[in-house]
Specification:
The protein is an all-alpha fold. Helix content is 70%, strand content 2%. The protein contains 8 helices and 2 strands; from the N terminus they run E-E-H-H-H-H-H-H-H-H. The protein has a two-stranded antiparallel ribbon with strand order 1-2. Helix 4 packs across helix 6. The protein is rod-shaped and about 140 Å long. The two termini are 80 Å apart.
Length: 244
Amino acid sequence: MALINCPECEKEISDTTKQCPNCGFKRKKPKKTIKQKKLIISIAILCVCIIGIGTPITISYIQNKTYENNLSVADDFFKNKQYDKALSAFKSLQTDKNTSDVTKKIKITEEKIIENENRNKVVGFVNFIKKLQETKLRSGITVTLSDMEYSMRDLVSQLKTFEGISANDKSELSTYIIAIKDSLNYKLMKIQANSDSFKNTGLADGYGQIDAQMNAINTISVASARNTINDAIDEILLKQIPTT
């Protein structure tokens, strides 16, 4: 703040006052000098430049932060074995940034989903043969030709599902599946289940069309099949299904 002389009464007044306190003379707002105008323009241009440079940087920072947060969420889904959610989260990130890291994680997650599906099929097969043995084929249970026909029919269906499980990687589950399929007892069980020995025998059994000699032969056939299948089931049940 500086002191100036009032143009009217010539007494000293502040250069910031709008009206002279002595005579009431109203001062006009001083015009900006050319130098001041240039300074204001320069400052304005500088501000525009700063905003122009800073905005893309800010947007990029926000995008990167969002990407990292979403990637962390996807990784947590994977760690918690929520593979369907993890796959969806990884794929949404791939649309933002098609990075090799995310692509690799998508592939691994898809493999885990397939492995889980295969494990569920294995568990279903093992539970079936365990129940089959406990309720139909174990020692001490009387088994008729009708029983064998329907048991073999169900077993064939389960074997087809098990045979269809892929085991083409180096996972513990694939090793487990291959070990069962390569087992001699398992192969003999497949032969028994797919043989014609018990096909349509339940109908003849129901109508009592089996004579004593044939009945004796069938009794031996049933016993042989039961022993073969029970041996295979015992061997499979001894193996622990991989959980990872």
